[in-house]
Specification:
The chain has 464 residues and is mainly beta. It has helices spanning 86-92, 100-104, 356-366, 371-374, 377-387, 404-407, 433-439, 460-463, and strands at 25-26, 36-42, 48-57, 64-65, 73-74, 77-78, 94-95, 106-109, 112-116, 118-120, 124-126, 128-135, 138-139, 141-142, 147-154, 162-169, 204-205, 208-209, 215-216, 224-225, 228-231, 234-240, 245-250, 258-261, 296-297, 302-303, 308-316, 325-334, 337-340, 389-397, 444-454. InterPro entries: ConA-like_dom_sf (IPR013320), Glyco_hydro_7 (IPR001722), Glyco_hydro_7_sf (IPR037019).
């Protein structure tokens, strides 16, 4: 919901040589070698075919430097010599290849990926955000409308204030190189990120630097807010730690990545949260928030001490991948048992599926702005799903709201008897990033066994 992430930089000093061509360049000082990760496509009979993919870390985590290796960005400020403005910055600066395990704490094995929370090397890295790739230069596009998507996840090491998030966004498959020729780095270097918060902490957007209007963060030594944001539809399949979880569709007026300016972006970093083209809140289903406090957590119905298989189904009006999205359903599988999402116990909000009626009733009862309906609701979310989306896998802590919106009482000045305020069992004093990073440096999340196929296909063999 509030994906404000942060990253490390490296300090390297040398002489600069300016380039003539305006472009966001690909570095050559460190090789970019993508870790491999497989996933499966399933048929209606439940038989699945293995696809060999790769993962790439988001460009925002990468070292950005001049041709000779001088930092273009250090801490949370831009080097004015190389980056006096957006276009000049893209002309002068390179995105460098990543050292996945030693610097970012990312490892893969066959069909799984592990993301470590704190990794200490030349600097201190906190969390990560990665995309699944089809090949060296293109993200894998997923078309899940009328289909189901499943994966296994281990959140047993994620305590209050942490978020292991797996979700889809409407990024360009090539990272933006076709639409923005000034972006030479492309998907190979993890460019083109966008989401429904229209994030303004990105270093590069649409082939340009995000230097103009950049304001360093007051509470994070590595991030800031620039004059532009990067908007697109977002389908949060999974945002969770071991105490709470949620899945949330976020439609946008425009299908696909779009650059916005200043506070007209809306979202987390803007003065008017609801002033942009996307729905920043979405329509979430969090079992705890919907009244069931014994469904999800350590030792509960869905036991977060053990690996969980998560199945998300995108049902359409005519049961085909070309119909209108009508409902998003959730199943869990543990120890060979299939468990349906818990039913809402909130008076006036019935069911355990996300659909337009559920969302309108939820907003009304919770007293939340109905930005979901404003931005097209399920139908608009379905258009994004049909158009193809990129899979994101991440681990992060929250410098904006301490992740209280996921696992505690939020807003903190709300009355806990008011429906919708209680979202998880964590204290309102939990989740402060400095505390989380100090107390849980060894935290990690593991995603594995990703499958896509017709409704019921990804777990059909289990049902037999």
């Amino acid at each position: 919901m509030y994906k404000q992430l942060h990253f490390i930089t490296f300090i390297v000093l040398s002489t600069c040589i300016l380039n003539i061509v305006w472009s966001q360049k690909a570095g050559k000082l460190n090789p970019e070698v993508h870790p491999t990760m497989s996933w499966e496509t399933c048929g209606i009979d439940g038989n699945c075919t293995t696809n060999q993919g790769q993962v790439v870390i988001d460009a925002n985590w990468r070292w950005v430097h001049s041709e000779q290796g001088t930092n273009c960005y250090t801490g949370n400020t831009w080097n004015p010599t190389f980056c006096p403005d957006d276009k000049t910055c893209a002309q002068n600066c390179y995105l460098e290849g990543a050292q996945y395990q030693s610097v970012y704490g990312v490892t893969t094995h066959e069909d799984s990926i592990r993301l470590n929370f704190v990794t200490q090397s030349q600097g201190k890295n906190i969390g990560s955000r990665l995309f699944l790739m089809e090949n060296e230069t293109n993200y894998q596009m997923f078309y899940v409308l009328g289909q189901e998507f499943s994966f296994d996840v281990d959140v047993s090491k994620l305590d209050c204030g942490l978020n292991g998030a797996l979700y889809f966004v409407s990024m360009d498959s090539d990272g933006g190189t076709s639409r923005f020729p000034t972006n030479e780095a492309g998907a190979k270097f993890g460019t083109g990120y966008c989401d429904a918060q229209c994030p303004r902490d990105l270093k590069f957007i649409s082939g340009e630097g995000n230097v103009d209007g950049w304001v360093p963060s007051s509470n994070n030594p590595n991030t800031g807010v620039g004059g532009h944001g990067s908007c697109c539809s977002e389908m949060d399949i999974w945002e969770a730690n071991k105490m709470a979880s949620a899945f949330t569709p976020h439609p946008c007026d425009v299908v696909g990545q779009n650059m916005c300016s200043g506070d007209t972006c809306g979202g987390t970093a803007s003065s008017n949260r609801y002033g942009g083209e996307c729905d920043p809140d979405g329509c979430d289903f969090n079992p705890y928030r919907m009244g069931n406090k014994t469904f999800y957590g350590p030792g509960l119905d869905i036991d977060t001490n053990s690996v969980i298989t998560v199945v998300t189904q995108f049902l359409t009006s005519d049961d085909t991948p070309t119909g209108t999205l009508t409902s998003i359903n959730r199943l869990y599988i543990q120890k060979g048992e299939i468990v349906s999402q818990s039913q809402s116990t909130i008076e006036g909000v019935e069911g355990n599926k996300v659909n337009d009626q559920f969302c309108m009733k939820q907003k009304e009862v919770f007293g939340d702005p109905d930005s979901f309906t404003k931005h097209g609701g399920m139908q608009q979310m379905g258009k994004a799903l049909q158009n193809g989306m990129v899979l994101v896998m991440s681990l992060w802590d929250d410098y904006f709201a301490d992740m209280l919106w996921l696992d505690s009482s939020y807003p903190v000045n709300g009355t806990t008897t008011q429906p919708g305020v209680l979202r998880g069992p964590c204290s309102t004093t939990s989740g402060v990033p400095a505390d989380v990073e100090s107390k849980y440096p060894d935290a990690y999340v593991i995603y594995s066994n990703i499958k896509v196929g017709p409704i019921g296909s990804t777990y059909k063999n289990l049902k037999k």
